[in-house]
Prior knowledge:
The structure holds 2 protein chains of 2 kinds.
Chain A lengths: L1 H4 L25 H18 L1 H12 L2 H12 L1 E2 L2 E2 H30 L6 H26 L4
Antiparallel strand pairs in A: 1-2
Chain B lengths: L16 H27 L7 H7 L3 H29 L3 H27 L2
Helix pairs in contact in B: 1-3, 3-4
Amino acid sequence: MTELASKQRPKRPEFRNINALSDLPTYRLPPAGWVSILHRISGFIMFLLMPFIIWMFDTSISSEISFEKFKAAFNIGMLGLPGFLWKLAALALIWAYLHHFIAGLRHLWMDVSHAAVSKEFGQSSALFTLAASIILTLVLGAKVFGLY
Amino acid sequence: MAINYGSKRIVVGAHYGLRDWLAQRITAALMALFTVLLLVQVIVGKGPIGYDKWAGIFSSQWMKTLTFVVIVALLYHVWVGMRDIWMDYIKPASIKLVLNVFTIVWLVACAGWGIQVLWRL
């Protein structure tokens, strides 16, 4: 009561337009918000790296000679860049695809199920999406870098 | 759909939105199924995957045809998604137009390359 009645309550911040530099670093998002923005970012990454994806498809499948070139790019390097950087690019794509895929299934499920459109499911499925995509990326990343 | 010509034509509003929204979901479902199908073929059979097995997956006519459909689906899916991004974050119409044109050129070029790889196998 006293707290509500007192006049010294700090003014709550008001956002008319979000500034990327001054507001975003302190802007706290719920898990569903993180899934949402990462869905965009992962889609954008795959859009930008699309030529790399098709290059991988091309060289890995066209002939046995090109298949060796494909392997060499990751093991030795290509275009003056060392192999581990190409592996890192592939791993970025792996994460982007996994996140986009799982978040997309979450979206589709929410589109067809009224029961799924709740605060609780939004929260739990968002946490699942974040965790599953990161864990699978780590597992596959260990494979890409030859840890097992 | 209502008759959309003559003096009563609807000229404003995002009435085209439902079609793209639906198309994005249908293409997403198609690509998700394709992903599972491809993963199953990669995982089935033991040993590390070499050139023969990998190229063999795409050698059958039905797989080529399906991959072709998925490339077209991907093209449309990414177009809707990228247009959403430019619409949300880019305000000046001139820059938005340039980015939209760039997106179309980029996507058609990539799809063409992908289909070329597929067809010569």
